[in-house]
Amino acid sequence: MQSVSVSDLQGEALDWAVAKAEGLVIRRDPMGFGSGSESGYWIWEESGRGLKRYGLIGREYSPSTKWSEGGPIIDALRECGQHQFSLQTDAGGVCVLSRSTESISFRGCGETVLIAAMRCYVAVKLGESLAVPAFLSVSD
Asked: pTM for this structure?
């Protein structure tokens, strides 16, 4: 594990951090591939009611690039009323600001709204730095 700033997370590492913030079950190489593109981290959930959810983080599970996954996270945070969100844009990218009280705020910036929002979400849920598996590339 390596300690990184949430503002530096992108790609698979950012998606892994979002899954962790969401409380999803994460497994490394659950099918035993050992190496190659399928040997990464997976969302691997099975409930006692026969419900299953599997997906390779960064490909099938990618809230930082897929609105179908990142959008509901943004909506849930917005609807809970505990945070006020604002969006700022400039030529360099997008920033999402979350203010939970007058003195506590979190900021996520990135090239896209989803990247900025997911960085902000992870910072809100887990703090502004966290331990990420060394296997994951933190930045491209």
From this structure: 0.83
